[in-house]
Every structure is written in structure tokens, then in C-alpha cells.
């Protein structure tokens, strides 16, 4: 696929891959920042998301020479392109990376397994909490710690830089962030989850962590409400004047960066495992998507030079992304009159008044995908570039366009249709599929029957999308379908799909030892109303309590 942008293109041999060291905001009003600044800050001051000023294009001869590297050596090669050595010296960065992936249960970190025909599964769930978010959050936790240790050298008591991490989770971010940050000095973690709407295992994984710096808040609302509270807090001058807020949601650039690594790694694994696949050949990646962070990492890998045929977005019935690719309009709800297609099992999916449906793949129950804004910036940038002005003008235009789309999204619940050229450039690199709950269950069942593999429901959404994509692309293009969670995290859906399989035994076949007895452990969680000022109050109180305990220690 070609994207027609001058800064991309593996063809051109004389392009150097200068490490990108500075970041700008997608809304164009906040730029020139260091990696450390954007990692600690999360969201930009103008409400946008940080992106690198330039995506380094890695010459073919360079990235192809990475093919036999270990996961951590590959990670170092990729991540160091985006971090200036004057910010993190090479040896320190290597150490951070090595420690981040030493917590994984397999040395390969993200192994690739052949599933069926031309479909391969990239297993991303071998980290401490059994979901793909560990790949990014183990790294982010260690980065936070590294920056804070450095900032606090020689400082005592209240002079120390104290980071207050606030996150929203529909399940997996919460536990992965908590495991990335528990017990770390000078950091408090507040994790907001929609009360009663995360899977029982996920809830236990979060609430049974009793470290003093970990605070679970159960919000009476849905996940989008939690995200709204988060946005209000980050935009609030009062809390920002007294607390240094940090973000662990996938708006944090370091998360996207860490995830680009496994796109390269799985590509090389495929070349090792498959005789008919050679380095240089194209692949398709299929990504079960919610906030669009995971697939966006694939887009960066592509822009860096990885031969990607298409990135296939797989959504559940919360399909705002899928509708964008079909219509060019991005709206929270389908525009009235256009009835949802696909024969929804209305009893299986409860609709809430704001349009978000509870599905069997709850980590994808998102209608406003925060990271989509980053892709929008690139689409607007390409569009501006076609006018043939200078790069500074193109970037300024892109920022303005993104701001106006996002304003419409906030004020009118949607934007679009976007210009035809913008939609075309989105379709050049991406395809999309929407998978219902019934199709999700059918996919779990058929893969179990056909190859004996137990998929979690999110992964099943991806595999169904991959099967459809194979029909379009043909069997010659290998598909790497991302497996985002271990099936034991979503026992409800897995058991429902496989209940009538005579020899299926969840505890023997699926349940990892680590989950046994979790429900017997002590829990810590606090209920809070769906009101951002109430959350702000809780944060103030609890941070003060933590600091007091340190004062007297
Ligand atoms: C977070 C998550 C997703 C969605 O990833 P995004 O980066 O938000 O698109 C999919 N599956 C699982 C299991 C997840 O935890």
C-alpha cells in the first residue's frame, strides 16, 4: 500500500532514519516537546494527543537486518528511534526494556502461532495480567519510575515530584496499569472502572491489589462516562495546579510506541515459521479495536516501512469506527433511519441511553475511540500535503482540521462526511469489519471444533474479521490476527460458546493457576458517583493521606 506522503517510502534509499526526538499535538497548538514531557503529561494542553514531529522511515536494509533479534533487542532498536539518547542514555533504555519484558511468561514475549489456513495468531497475553495491555504498561510503569527517580534526586518530603496517575478502564487497562505501577515510589494510581461492568476476573485482578498507592474507583456509569471524567480532570486548572496528573490510557504516546514492536516481531516470526513467506512480502494485520491504540501502533509500523497490505479494524456492535470506513461519518450513534444491520440479538446486547452496548467483548465497548484522533491527524496531513505547500503549513492545516472535527464530535456527537480524498486515503491503508455477539460465539465454537484452540471473545471478533478479509484478499496474503486477551479473563462468553462441547472443561483446559483463589483474597475499592468533581475530591483526599503517611514515615 502506498500513502503518497513524502516522509514515507522504503523505496528511497537515501532517506536517513533520524531519531525523532520532538512531539507535537494533534490539535496544533502545543508542540516541540521532549519524550519525557509527553510521557509524563499524557494529554496535550490544547486537548490533543501527542505524535512525533516526524515518523522515522527505516531503510529496508536496516529493518530487514533486525529479523533475528530477540524481542527486547528489537524493541530497543525501534523505541530508540523515538527517544533522544540525551534524554535516556542507551544503556538505561536497554535496562528499562529488559526489565519490562522479563515479567512475561515466555521469552518470546509475543509468540506467533499458526491458527488455520493463512491465519496466524499473535498471542499478546503472556504478561502479568494476561492481556495485551501489559506489553505497553510494563514499559510505561518503568519509564515513569525512571523519570521520577531522576527528578527526585536529592529531594525530600513534599519537595518530591509526585505523579498522580488517573486512568479509565473497561477492564484490561486497569489491571495492567495497576500491575505496572503498584508499589512504585512517588506515584499514586487512581483507576476508574464502570461499576459492575467489567468481568469478574478483571475486577478481582484490580481490587485485590492492596498496595497503598493503588486506588480503585467504581463509577456508577459506563466506560465512556469514565473517559469523560478523565478528560474533565485533565482539563481542570484546579487539580492541575496542585497535582501532577499522569495518563496511562492509550492516549499516552509511550503505549503506542511499545506496541509498534510486536508488529515487526510477528512479521519476522512469520518469516521464520512459514516457508512460503519471505522478508519483503506483504501481510495483513487484523486488530480487535476499541480505543484504536493497538491498530494505530500497526499504522506507525507501516509508516516506518513494514510491508503491510492492509490493517483490518475489527469492531463489535459498538461500530462507530466501522461506520466511519463505510460512510465517512464518525458518529456515536448510527444516524437515525439507518437501522443497525446484521440481525442484532437485542436480548444479548443491552443498549444504554447513550448508545454504548454491553457486548461480550467489553474492552471494545467504545464509541468514541480516543486514538482515532491520531489517525485523523495523518489523514488531514496527507490531504493538506496534496495542496503542495510547505510542511509547516501542512501541519498547521492538519491541526486545524482535527480541532474542527473533534469540536463537532463533542458538540454535535459526530462529524463528517469527511472529504472524499480523506476517506480514500483512510481506505488505502485500512479495512473494517463489524462482528456481532452471535458471530463472536460462533467463531469461538468453530475454532475450538476445527483446531482445538480456545479464543477469548475479543480475539474471536478479530478472527471472524480475518476470515472475511481472507475471502477478499485471497489465501496468498498471510493474516496476522492479534490475540488481545487470554480466554480465562472472559469465562462467561467462553463457557457460553463451548457449553455443549462434551469434552470441554474450562478449569482444566483454560484456567491458569494464577487465577485460582483470587475471589478469596481481600479487596479494596471505593464507589463514586458519575461526577468528575466527586472524583477530584477523592483524589485530593487519598493523595494527601498517602503523602501524610510518607511524612510521618
Ligand atoms: C484494550 C483491548 C482491546 C482494544 O484495544 P484498543 O487499543 O483500545 O483498540 C481489545 N481487546 C482487549 C482484550 C483489550 O483489552
Structure description:
This protein is α/β, with parallel strands linked by helices and 553 residues long. Among the domains are: 17-50, Alpha-Beta Complex (threonine synthase, domain 1, chain A), CATH 3.90.1380.10; 113-120 and 251-490, Rossmann fold (3-Layer(aba) Sandwich), CATH 3.40.50.1100. The chain is built from 20 helices and 16 strands. The strands form four sheets. The protein has a six-stranded mixed sheet, sandwiched between helices. It has a five-stranded parallel sheet with strand order 9-6-7-8-16, sandwiched between helices. Helix 4 (90-101) packs across helix 5 and helix 10 crosses helix 11. Mean pLDDT is 91; it is low at 1-17 and 337-351. The chain binds pyridoxal-5'-phosphate (PLP). Its cofactor is pyridoxal 5'-phosphate.
Arithmetic mean pLDDT: 91
Separation, N- and C-terminal Cα atoms: 59 Å
For the biggest β-sheet, the strand order reads: 4-5-15-10-11-14
Report the sheet-strand fraction. Answer: 5-15%
CATH topology of the domain at 113-120 and 251-490: Rossmann fold
Question: What's the story with the biggest beta sheet?
Answer: 6 strands, mixed
Number of beta-strand segments = 16
Question: In CATH's first tier, which class of the domain at 113-120 and 251-490 applies?
Answer: Alpha Beta
Task: List cofactors, ions and other ligands.
Answer: pyridoxal-5'-phosphate
Helix content: 40-55%
Q: Class by helix and strand content?
A: alpha/beta
Radius of gyration: 22 Å
Count of alpha and pi helical runs: 20
Question: What are the low-pLDDT stretches, counting only 5+ consecutive residues below 50?
Answer: 1-17, 337-351
Globular, elongated, flat, extended or rod-shaped: what is the shape? Answer: globular
CATH architecture of the domain at 113-120 and 251-490: 3-Layer(aba) Sandwich
Amino acid at each position: 500500500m502506498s500513502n503518497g506522503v513524502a516522509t514515507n517510502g522504503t523505496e528511497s534509499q537515501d532517506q536517513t532514519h533520524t531519531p525523532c526526538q520532538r512531539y507535537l499535538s494533534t490539535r496544533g497548538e502545543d508542540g516541540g516537546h521532549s519524550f519525557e514531557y509527553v510521557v509524563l503529561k499524557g494529554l496535550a494542553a490544547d486537548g490533543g494527543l501527542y505524535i512525533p514531529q516526524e515518523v522515522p522511515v527505516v531503510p529496508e536494509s536496516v529493518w530487514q537486518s533486525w529479523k533475528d533479534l530477540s524481542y527486547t533487542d528489537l524493541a530497543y532498536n525501534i523505541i530508540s528511534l523515538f527517544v533522544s539518547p540525551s534524554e535516556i542514555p542507551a544503556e538505561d533504555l536497554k535496562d528499562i526494556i529488559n526489565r519490562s519484558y522479563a515479567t512475561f511468561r515466555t521469552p518470546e514475549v509475543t509468540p506467533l502461532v499458526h491458527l488455520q489456513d493463512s491465519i496466524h495468531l499473535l498471542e499478546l497475553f503472556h504478561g502479568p495480567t494476561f492481556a495485551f495491555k501489559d506489553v505497553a504498561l510494563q514499559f510505561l510503569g518503568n519509564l515513569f519510575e525512571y523519570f521520577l527517580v531522576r527528578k527526585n534526586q536529592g529531594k525530600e518530603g513534599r519537595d518530591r515530584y509526585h505523579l498522580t496517575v488517573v486512568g479509565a478502564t473497561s477492564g484490561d487497562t486497569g489491571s495492567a496499569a495497576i500491575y505496572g505501577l503498584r508499589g512504585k515510589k512517588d506515584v499514586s494510581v487512581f483507576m476508574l472502572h464502570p461499576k459492575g461492568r467489567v468481568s469478574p476476573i478483571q475486577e478481582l485482578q484490580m481490587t485485590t491489589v492492596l498496595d497503598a498507592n493503588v486506588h480503585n474507583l467504581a463509577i456508577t456509569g459506563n466506560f465512556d462516562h469514565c473517559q469523560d471524567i478523565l478528560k474533565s480532570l485533565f482539563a481542570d486548572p484546579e487539580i492541575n495546579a496542585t497535582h501532577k496528573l499522569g495518563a496511562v490510557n492509550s492516549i499516552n504516546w509511550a503505549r503506542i510506541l511499545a506496541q509498534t514492536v510486536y508488529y515487526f516481531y510477528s512479521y519476522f516470526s512469520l518469516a521464520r515459521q512459514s516457508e512460503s513467506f519471505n522478508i519483503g512480502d506483504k501481510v495483513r494485520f487484523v486488530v480487535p479495536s476499541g480505543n484504536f491504540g493497538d491498530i494505530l501502533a500497526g499504522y506507525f509500523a507501516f509508516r516506518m516501512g513494514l510491508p503491510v497490505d492492509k490493517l483490518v479494524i475489527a469492531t463489535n456492535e459498538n461500530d462507530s469506527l466501522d461506520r466511519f470506513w463505510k460512510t465517512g461519518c464518525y458518529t456515536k450513534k448510527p444516524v437515525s433511519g439507518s437501522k443497525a444491520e446484521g440481525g442484532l440479538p437485542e436480548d444479548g446486547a443491552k443498549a444504554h441511553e447513550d448508545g454504548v452496548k454491553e457486548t461480550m467483548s467489553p474492552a471494545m465497548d467504545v464509541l468514541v475511540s480516543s486514538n482515532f484522533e491520531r489517525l485523523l491527524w495523518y489523514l488531514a496531513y496527507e490531504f493538506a500535503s496534496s495542496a503542495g505547500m510547505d510542511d509547516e503549513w501542512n501541519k498547521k492545516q492538519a491541526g486545524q482540521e482535527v480541532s474542527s472535527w473533534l469540536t463537532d464530535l463533542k458538540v454535535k456527537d459526530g462529524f463528517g462526511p469527511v472529504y472524499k480524498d480523506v476517506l480514500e486515503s483512510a481506505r488505502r491503508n485500512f479495512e473494517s469489519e463489524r462482528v456481532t455477539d452471535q458471530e463472536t460465539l460462533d467463531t469461538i465454537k468453530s475454532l475450538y471444533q476445527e483446531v482445538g484452540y480456545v479464543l477469548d471473545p475479543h480475539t474471536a471478533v478479530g478472527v471472524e474479521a480475518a476470515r472475511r478479509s481472507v475471502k477478499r484478499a485471497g489465501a496468498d496474503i498471510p493474516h496476522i490476527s492479534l490475540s488481545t486477551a487470554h480466554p480465562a479473563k472472559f469465562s462467561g462468553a467462553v463457557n457460553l460458546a463451548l457449553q455443549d462441547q462434551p469434552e470441554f472443561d474450562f478449569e482444566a483446559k483454560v484456567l491458569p493457576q494464577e487465577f485460582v483463589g483470587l475471589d478469596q483474597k481481600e479487596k479494596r475499592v471505593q464507589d463514586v458517583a458519575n461526577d468528575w468533581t466527586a472524583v477530584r475530591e477523592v483524589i485530593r483526599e487519598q493523595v494527601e493521606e498517602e503523602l501524610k503517611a510518607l511524612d510521618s514515615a
